[in-house]
């Protein structure tokens, strides 16, 4: 059950965020109740505690403490100005717009600037929500101070979270998700004709979730490890395990058909299995394969203390033995490939264990296991001695800086929301401003803002219905209402990374309860909340579309060019190293590619969302992203193989690969040039297959002293995937070059 929880919530980040916020609010309410403050001050304390807790996102505890300490005077100043300026409508509205501009502009100063901006905005909003007056300020000062102290207690005492602890939980989540992926592979092996599509979808989901966790670990390595060498070692072992698991899934797919499976099948939802093949024969080799897949899953999930037992050591030795040709069982070539993949996956799991837990017991090692250990030790030594400084890219300035542009857009949208909100309600116009503010958070294009506004509106409408029911249920029972408020807060924070609609639903339901506590609840108030939300979302979209707009096409094209540039960089560096060039930092470059692809995938959501009107455009966007995911997989695999050159006895540099890589890199750069400038005349080079350009050999026989068969496969698939990008992007083909 713990592994299931770890897999569903990597690092327990959502659970911790929800519990910490609830604990801060509950502590605040408990303290304020002891001193017998009125209900409006209880509500203010709950909102202040929530703002002080969720606004701070820094990873180091010392930095969090400094930001929280700076946030208190920011909050006191904000509530003071809110109470003072409430008397003058125009002056108060102008100041609110200026505050919003400064809060968004503050993002350029990193997590601390973002946190202080959020606190300033949320506490000013608090003053409007509870109708703060100058006479009530002393009491509000005390309430806010109590809220910040309780937030500190919840953060640093009740639910402490260190970077090293978070990284450790993320590693547990990676192991749990790796075990789930192996379980999905077993399901695929067992699936009959009627279940194969469902099993394939589970395999796609498991592969994507494992990759997501690997990226989350990448973002925590610098803060969560003791030194750079440890971070690099863990990064490499995580990458090895991810690549080995994904390759094993592809080999299993291939074993189900008479032809080699296109890697795109693993990345494109709805892509069918290859046709024309028979389901695997239920013979002795298949039974052994299923047993060994179960053994691999056990090896992945077994706790550290049990990982070196005699029985598990025998299982590990058997799996690692499949890396030797003489240990492969008699089976079809495709099934033998799966056994080879099992051996490589077992090696990756062994390397991950050593990186995480230190050296393991070697008393039961077979010669194959000993060789794997020697290879891993040599790689570890090479990783620890390598270091490379990446040049920093210049940041844009002026209105080209994203934070400046967003600040101007939010300020204009908020001004429109204030004007329209005042027409709807002179008392609760701030709901429109809040929505306009929120739809701009973590968005970068007009399409993203439109989708986020749509989701917030849907969640708000559903939340209003729930709020009406909850308000009628609790009546005048104050503590029942506060208990439900805490439940809604936890649910909102727990579901926020998963669904913005769900988060909006729980927040709106909570607001219905808060209005009940303030004795201002009515159905008309909640209906007004929907109207103000729709107005705020519309103002945000208008501002994004008119003021310094970043259209979705422009945004996705920029990210597509960035992804292609990083793909070309990884491919070129891997090919150079495989051709005999000096070693380079390939894993970091591969992870930069993965991050660029993740940004592109997020930016295409407005194009792939169900409300997108153009079906063909939606399908094209999904197809292009899936092709790029295929390219990234093969580029990662090439980079990982290239880094083995100094230490692996069966891989040697081959100068002819430089020419092969040159064609692939040229095609990637041609596609990037066409996306950046449709008038570009660069075209795609075609020619003989990668395998035919190199020395002939048996397809599945490794060329010891030469480039291995695996490298040829990845090159061939990368070449095909890159060429496949030309058709949906409308790029012409050049003459064939031999």
Task: Give an overview of the whole structure.
The protein has helices spanning 2-8, 13-34, 39-54, 61-85, 89-105, 110-129, 137-158, 163-190, 196-224, 228-255, 284-301, 310-321, 333-357, 367-385, 402-424, 430-440, 446-474, 478-495, 500-517, 523-546, 552-578, 586-603, 605-608, 615-642, 657-676, 690-693, 709-729; strands spanning 684-686, 733-736. Strands 1-2 form a two-stranded parallel ribbon. The relative contact order is 0.07. It is globular and about 85 Å long. By secondary structure, the chain is mainly alpha-helical.
Please render the helix and strand layout as text.
Elements: H1 2-8, H2 13-34, H3 39-54, H4 61-85, H5 89-105, H6 110-129, H7 137-158, H8 163-190, H9 196-224, H10 228-255, H11 284-301, H12 310-321, H13 333-357, H14 367-385, H15 402-424, H16 430-440, H17 446-474, H18 478-495, H19 500-517, H20 523-546, H21 552-578, H22 586-603, H23 605-608, H24 615-642, H25 657-676, E1 684-686, H26 690-693, H27 709-729, E2 733-736
Parallel strand pairs: 1-2
Helix pairs in contact: 1-8, 2-3, 2-7, 2-18, 3-6, 3-7, 4-6, 4-7, 5-6, 5-15, 8-9, 8-10, 8-11, 9-10, 10-13, 10-14, 10-24, 11-12, 11-13, 12-13, 15-16, 15-20, 16-17, 16-20, 17-19, 17-20, 18-19, 21-22, 21-24, 21-25, 22-24, 24-27, 25-27
